[in-house]
UniProtKB/TrEMBL annotation:
Tree of life domain: Bacteria
Gene3D superfamilies: D-Amino Acid Oxidase, subunit A, domain 2, FAD/NAD(P)-binding domain
The protein, known as: FAD-binding oxidoreductase
The entry's keywords: Oxidoreductase
Cross-referenced Pfam families: DAO
Classification via InterPro entries: FAD-dep_OxRdtase, FAD/NAD-bd_sf
Ranges of residues in domain FAD dependent oxidoreductase: 7-362
Organism, as annotated: Roseibium litorale
Length: 393
């Protein structure tokens, strides 16, 4: 057992922790020792590796739209931003767009959301029913009145590749990664002691909690903070379709079922109902969800999906913020030197470039410089003021 010191400890080394470490290490005004603690160096079960890995601007809250506008620019230029020794990472970004569909009951919400998206500069087309049918002839529009399609700036990418690109760049800049679990966190006066599963103790004035569903809430409790962040399972299913469906986007049915292309086939999913969504740490796939809810919805919405060939499926965990389904980001008032990037509720991959940038600015300068992330601060939880996001998928 040994002890050492750092300037910043980041607990959780997947995409959020690695983005924060990388962008802090890139700053010319910060030269301290950054240590990232990651319990699973294989990253086999982290959300970054098991996510559907997509990015969109079709949100109903300004901060989420602005975060994704920053994010898409970052992803488009990732080769230059995260190059290491001439090797430029590739994440296979495909800007196929999201397609949110609306019935007569939800069209007004879609219009209101689109107005905000358009005002902030997102490239989203509002399509009346006739235009929707003309653009996507394979779509059943019988019960629809409108849809919104991302013309650019929305799509999907290699989420695992993004995480590894951040990690590789961070390591090239001197960030140290320790393969261990952060077992206990406690105040040591002016800073923090982190006791690791290997018996070592690491101390620093600043700790950043990016542990996600795997222990993020427990780290908060040890720091003296209770947060409504829970580990919730999400399943992703693959299938093949014999018909060619041109310009297939990331389709969002009015009931929340989604599907998008993946290679020569498709992936799909749906958040289970609240009563069927307990806290869990298992990775068992809920095949009944596909058979009883997802496939019937997709077969109705896209008639060509009536005859499909199911493929493999997998499960992963989201750090769900049950307060308002938006992340807690930033410094925690009253707990000196303790920072959060937690509770992303499925939006972590796409928000990691902006959040990593924001935290790096906050740590180095004491304030946000590029994008004001204060709407995601935990102060809203303390005051009971929810950040309402209508487009939760």
């Amino acid at each position: 057992m040994g002890s050492s010191t750092a300037d910043v400890i980041i607990i959780g080394g997947a995409v959020m922790g690695s983005s924060t470490a990388c962008q802090l290490a890139q700053r010319p005004d910060f030269s301290g020792r950054i240590v990232v603690i990651e319990a699973d160096p294989t990253y086999e079960i982290c959300a970054s590796a098991r996510s559907a890995a997509s990015i969109r601007q079709q949100y109903s809250s300004a901060i989420n739209i602005e975060i994704s506008l920053f994010g898409i620019d970052y992803l488009r230029n990732i080769g230059e931003r995260l190059e290491v020794n001439g090797d430029k990472p590739v994440i296979d970004l495909h800007e196929g767009g999201y397609l949110f569909l609306a019935t007569s009951e939800t069209e007004s919400i879609l219009r209101e959301n689109h107005a905000l998206q358009d005002k902030l500069g997102a490239d989203i087309a509002f399509l009346e029913k006739a235009a929707l049918q003309a653009k996507f002839p394979w779509l059943n529009t019988e019960d629809l009145t409108a849809g919104c399609h991302g013309l650019s700036g929305e799509g999907w990418f290699d989420g695992y590749g993004l995480m590894q690109a951040f990690r590789r760049k961070a390591r090239s800049l001197g960030v140290e990664y320790i393969s261990a679990r952060a077992e206990t966190l406690k105040k040591n006066g002016s800073g923090w002691d982190v006791v690791l599963s290997n018996g070592d103790t690491l101390s620093a004035p600043i700790v950043v909690n990016t542990a996600g569903a795997s222990g993020g809430a427990e780290i908060c409790r040890q720091a003296g903070l209770d947060v409504p962040v829970h580990s919730r399972k999400r399943c992703v299913f693959t299938f093949d379709c014999k018909d060619t469906l041109p310009l297939f986007p990331l389709l969002i049915d009015p009931n929340g079922t989604y599907a998008r292309p993946e290679g020569a086939g498709f992936i799909c999913g749906l958040a289970p109902s609240d009563e069927n969504d307990p806290d869990t740490d298992d990775f068992d796939v809920d095949y009944a969800l596909f058979e009883e809810e997802i496939w019937p919805t997709l077969a109705n919405r896209v008639p060509a999906f009536e005859a499909i060939r199911p493929g493999r499926a997998w499960a992963g965990h989201y750090d769900m913020n049950l307060f308002d389904h938006n992340a807690f980001v930033g410094a925690v008032p009253g707990i000196e030197g303790f920072y959060l990037a937690l509770g992303f509720s499925g939006h972590g991959l796409q928000q990691s470039p902006a959040v990593g940038r924001g935290l790096s600015e906050l740590i180095a300068t004491g304030s946000y410089q590029t994008l004001d992330l204060s709407p995601l601060g935990i102060e809203r939880y303390f005051s009971g003021t929810k950040l309402i996001e209508r487009n939760v998928v």
